[in-house]
Design goal:
This protein is an alpha/beta fold. It contains 17 helices and 16 strands.
Length: 551
């Protein structure tokens, strides 16, 4: 058994229990014609071995058989060209040969039972037969294998097309899956996987899509369709923002009173999570706090923050009230099992108590609570940072890595945000805004949500404009975190990747089908730049034509 990363047990069970049965499996038994010798070897009698045999006669002077010579691959096939996929493969070594196409009766085999999901999925998509673990070699087959390449990027893979067969190997099942996505795109619409070897891996480990389901209802089926689309494009995270001022969109057992009439049931969420797991996508939940909690406050008005003058800022809980922390922690604890992935987005943005000129005077109860908790010189910003750290501690107990929006971090506080809280940098418009380097220079890891390139805001309020794929493709890279200027290259390793985000400020501005159409090319451009941030080989016109051909 190769040493490779395992999926979380619960996520694996969900993926197998809910999804694996969707594809019919036929196990093919037969007499083997030879032992598989690895991705770079060919059995006797293959096209490659025939090409390498002497063409002028047999060994030791024996007579030449009386038959017309057949052309060898090196004489009859042009050198292959690099496959055209989205995202583009990083490297391809060309070769001469016919390439590979799927055909009825051909099989998909694996060298490890952990690749059963990948094998069944590919077989169902290409009309092949999934035959499970096999050592014998058959013409036209696809073999998926885990290798022992210790220390390699777990999302890397190698795909060899040779001798009428395909071999995809990787150190982890995620890499094998991405190899199958490349193969699927190559043969789409009757195409041929070109002869040769693809060596591929992503530049960034975080390649995400964020969806605001709180302010607009998206059906479970629509979300599942996006999961399939994201998987084929090699995205690996889906963030669900399901709690906001307008609604709370997932069934709750601990606080059913806060759930909106239109919502996802836990059964629907489990199916989405399982479908995502099958496609190596982690679903990242976001319960934003201490702002954007209007749906919670509607059921619990006693949690509403009030100013000294009696005003009530929208969606803002009073963090000096212990009941505010309790209800949020109840929800974080409840949903930790529903979302078995390793990440949790805590929000933290736009806390309206800090969007006034004098927070301590406007909200004296917060100033008093800050001094009581952190000492005489403590500020409302310190109290809010303490809230963030406490919520991070709650999800950390469940094995989650916390993430928060950049405007949930404040300068000059005596209470510092925990070091493991990653920065989701989306804007430079907040009060006291800081450049991305202010976070990166402290060693903090950052995920890029640049709102000038990657924000699709329904209704286009506040000078937001629907992003175009062309602008992302031609001008953005993961180092362009704020505005249009890249941060210094020395910080590249701290930028984990990026997210394309849909926000539903005006939910009726577009239907969900219009959203799917509108984000189609921006998603493809975004993942291209996360997979390889360099200048793309294709022009935008050719890239768009490729996307249209691949569907």
């Amino acid at each position: 058994m190769s040493q490779h990363r395992k999926r979380p047990e619960k996520q694996e069970k969900q993926a197998r229990g809910l999804i694996a049965g969707a594809v019919a499996v036929t196990v093919v038994a037969g007499v083997g014609i030879g032992l598989w010798a690895g991705g770079d070897s060919e059995p006797a009698g293959s096209a490659r071995s025939q090409a390498q045999a002497p063409s002028g006669g047999s060994a030791e002077g024996s007579p030449t058989p009386a038959r017309a010579p057949s052309p060898t691959p090196t004489r009859s096939y042009a050198l292959s060209t690099t496959p055209r996929t989205i995202p583009a493969v990083r490297a391809h070594t060309p070769a001469r040969g016919p390439g590979w196409r799927p055909a009825s009766g051909r099989r998909v085999v694996v060298n490890d039972s952990d690749l059963a999901d990948e094998g069944r999925l590919l077989a169902g998509e290409l009309g092949l037969t999934y035959a499970g673990q096999k050592d014998d070699v058959r013409a036209g087959e696809v073999r998926l294998a885990l290798n022992d390449d210790e220390g390699a990027n777990p999302e890397s893979y190698r795909m060899t097309v040779r001798g009428g067969r395909v071999a995809i190997s990787a150190p982890d099942d995620a890499g094998v899956f991405y190899g199958t996505r490349t193969l699927k795109q190559e043969v789409h619409g009757g195409g041929t996987a070109p002869e040769g070897v693809v060596r591929d891996q992503p530049a960034k480990p975080v390649r995400g899509f964020s969806l605001d389901i709180a302010r607009k209802t998206f059906t479970a089926r629509w979300i599942e369709d996006r999961v399939r689309e994201l998987g084929d494009l090699k995205f690996n995270q889906l963030q669900l923002h399901f709690s906001d001022d307008q609604a709370f969109r997932i069934e709750s057992d601990s606080h059913p009173e806060i759930v909106s009439a239109q919502h996802l049931t836990k059964a629907q969420v489990k199916r989405i999570v399982a479908l995502a797991a099958q496609r190596h996508i982690t679903v990242v939940p976001e319960i934003d706090s201490p702002g954007h909690l209007g749906a919670v406050i509607a059921a619990h008005p006693e949690l509403q923050l009030r100013s000294a003058a009696g005003s009530t800022p929208q969606g803002t809980v009073d963090i000096s009230n212990p009941a505010s922390a309790k209800i949020v922690d109840d929800l974080l604890n409840e949903y930790a099992g529903l979302f078995p992935g390793a990440y949790w987005h805590l929000g933290g943005d736009e806390y309206r108590a800090l969007m006034v000129s004098d927070p301590a005077a406007t909200y004296p109860q917060l100033a008093t609570a800050a001094r009581k908790a952190y000492g005489a010189g403590a500020t409302v910003e310190d109290l809010t940072t303490g809230w963030l750290n406490d919520r991070a501690a709650t999800v950390r107990k469940h094995g989650k890595t916390p993430l928060a929006w950049n405007d949930g971090f404040f300068r000059g506080t005596s209470v510092q945000p925990d070091k493991d809280i990653q920065v989701g940098y989306w804007t430079g418009k907040e009060i006291g805004a800081r450049q991305p380097v202010a976070y990166l220079s402290t060693g903090r890891k950052l995920v890029n949500y640049n709102d000038e390139f990657l924000y699709y805001v329904l209704g286009q309020p506040n000078r937001f404009f629907y992003p175009t794929g062309q602008r992302i493709y031609e001008q953005w890279t993961p180092r362009v975190v704020r505005g249009t200027t890249a941060v210094p290259a020395k910080y590249d390793g701290q930028i984990l990747g990026g997210y394309f985000a849909v926000w539903c400020d005006f939910p009726n501005a577009q239907t969900q089908d219009q959203v799917a159409t509108g984000i189609r090319m921006p998603l493809r451009a975004t993942v291209q730049k996360l997979w390889d941030p360099g200048k793309p080989a294709l022009t935008w016109t050719r890239f768009k034509a490729l996307a249209d051909r691949l569907g």
